[in-house]
Amino acid sequence: MPIQFTDQKQEFNKRTSNTGHRSLPHSISQSSTDSYGSVCSDSSEDGSSPRDKPRRTSKGLSDFCIKNIKQAEFGRREIIIAQQEMPALMILRKGAGGEKPLAGAQVVGCTHITAQTAVLIETLSVLGAQCRWAACNIFSTQNAVAAALAEGGTPVFAWRGESEDDFWWCIDRCVGAETWQPNMIMDDGGDLTHWIHKKHPSLFKNIKGIVEESVTGIYRLYQMSKAGRLCVPAINVNDSVTKQKFDNLYCCKESILDGLKRTTDIMFGGKQVVVCGYGEVGKGCCAALKALGAVVYVTEVDPICALQACMDGFRVNKLSEVARQVDMVVTCTGNCNKSVVRREHLDRMKDGCILCNMGHSIISFLVLHISFRHDNHSILIISDEYVASLHLPTFDAHLSEVTDEQAKYLGISKHGPFKPNDYR
Ligand SMILES: NC(=O)c1ccc[n+]([C@@H]2O[C@H](COP(=O)([O-])OP(=O)(O)OC[C@H]3O[C@@H](n4cnc5c(N)ncnc54)[C@H](O)[C@@H]3O)[C@@H](O)[C@H]2O)c1
């Protein structure tokens, strides 16, 4: 189905009502923004909308909208610390030696606004690009960082705790400047791209391309492409090796613990945890939980990933087999929301069992009754997956099965192959 803006709005409402906020950042844990907010909040955070307030930087600029420009100094210190953690971007800045290889690039961006993305945005500017930026997530913006960006001259439209209306207003202010037109889009989730598509389609005449970071955004772009509505080239950053093998694995390895600790304050030692999905994110989560002494079970539909879990020392079970005993369920499948954790699983769970979703952000825990239908197919599978599946009985590993709905969602056959060739 082609992208429907109204559907996105409905999804938005669903998300806010189900989870209390629009979406959680991925590599950036909720907790890091929580702690940040408490450190740099001040009495000027009075709950009134930044849209209603006059604003000006110390140099007299007013083309931005953030919570509180007085926080700029604190935000700048955060950015300087982040620069130390991001040597690659800093090398690019140094390597340019004052030249402007990106001169002429007019980048409109919509990403999490954190110290790390500030380093990216300012690197683009140092290299000659003109940038305007909005937040892709209403709760991840670090207000002080947004203030530092604005004070540094970047037109930024974002604050923590935007309403839905604010969210689209900020995006529109980025896109719809009177004297400026973007020729590149940098997006995380596809909202900016689809706003331009819906509200300012004529801008695409100028736009040379889109860079998209998230699974969700990529999925939307593929849908647009299939419907013949993607009129500019797009770069799929999500599937790059450095994103998959580093961001998904190592960042989630850290943020799972950080997020759970701060939101639940539980001990992990001795807890029984089931991690659904042993892809990159699942591998990171399992390693982190195991390191803290949790007893970790894995569910998988792909025999290869299941075998990897076995070889890494995890028991592979169906969720129904372990639902009764676990203290925590962590979903990392990236699969459609309705059927990984089902009503029948919830019914079995202990009182107080924690449900945590590390998969992409449109997913929240929805409860549905689903009945499995086992077709009597004779299928000859020749693949690595078949070979891996032959090893699983040795580990007494019990493979999960994708439902028809899940298979359709992932664009795979119920019987495999479960991963594209380039996955390997
Ligand atoms: N929280 C974060 O910070 C963060 C960071 C990066 C990615 N993500 C998201 O996490 C999700 C997973 O990413 P990934 O890189 O690990 O993907 P992946 O494709 O490498 O792994 C997903 C795994 O889940 C398995 N799976 C699918 N359906 C299943 C089911 N019903 N039961 C059990 N297993 C099932 C697949 O076989 C696969 O091995 C994606 O939605 C991604 O966008 C989150």
From TrEMBL:
<dbReference type="InterPro" id="IPR015878">
    <property type="entry name" value="Ado_hCys_hydrolase_NAD-bd"/>
</dbReference>
<feature type="binding site">
    <location>
        <position position="247"/>
    </location>
    <ligand>
        <name>substrate</name>
    </ligand>
</feature>
<feature type="binding site">
    <location>
        <position position="188"/>
    </location>
    <ligand>
        <name>substrate</name>
    </ligand>
</feature>
<dbReference type="GO" id="GO:0033353">
    <property type="term" value="P:S-adenosylmethionine cycle"/>
</dbReference>
<feature type="binding site">
    <location>
        <begin position="279"/>
        <end position="284"/>
    </location>
    <ligand>
        <name>NAD(+)</name>
    </ligand>
</feature>
<feature type="binding site">
    <location>
        <position position="213"/>
    </location>
    <ligand>
        <name>substrate</name>
    </ligand>
</feature>
<dbReference type="Pfam" id="PF05221">
    <property type="entry name" value="AdoHcyase"/>
</dbReference>
<feature type="binding site">
    <location>
        <position position="243"/>
    </location>
    <ligand>
        <name>substrate</name>
    </ligand>
</feature>
<dbReference type="InterPro" id="IPR036291">
    <property type="entry name" value="NAD(P)-bd_dom_sf"/>
</dbReference>
<feature type="compositionally biased region" description="Polar residues">
    <location>
        <begin position="15"/>
        <end position="36"/>
    </location>
</feature>
<dbReference type="InterPro" id="IPR000043">
    <property type="entry name" value="Adenosylhomocysteinase-like"/>
</dbReference>
<dbReference type="InterPro" id="IPR042172">
    <property type="entry name" value="Adenosylhomocyst_ase-like_sf"/>
</dbReference>
<dbReference type="Pfam" id="PF00670">
    <property type="entry name" value="AdoHcyase_NAD"/>
</dbReference>
<protein>
    <recommendedName>
        <fullName>S-adenosyl-L-homocysteine hydrolase NAD binding domain-containing protein</fullName>
    </recommendedName>
</protein>
<comment type="similarity">
    <text>Belongs to the adenosylhomocysteinase family.</text>
</comment>
<dbReference type="GO" id="GO:0006730">
    <property type="term" value="P:one-carbon metabolic process"/>
</dbReference>
<feature type="region of interest" description="Disordered">
    <location>
        <begin position="1"/>
        <end position="59"/>
    </location>
</feature>
<dbReference type="InterPro" id="IPR020082">
    <property type="entry name" value="S-Ado-L-homoCys_hydrolase_CS"/>
</dbReference>
<feature type="binding site">
    <location>
        <position position="114"/>
    </location>
    <ligand>
        <name>substrate</name>
    </ligand>
</feature>
<feature type="binding site">
    <location>
        <position position="300"/>
    </location>
    <ligand>
        <name>NAD(+)</name>
    </ligand>
</feature>
<keyword id="KW-0520">NAD</keyword>
<keyword id="KW-0554">One-carbon metabolism</keyword>
<feature type="domain" description="S-adenosyl-L-homocysteine hydrolase NAD binding">
    <location>
        <begin position="248"/>
        <end position="395"/>
    </location>
</feature>
<dbReference type="GO" id="GO:0005829">
    <property type="term" value="C:cytosol"/>
</dbReference>
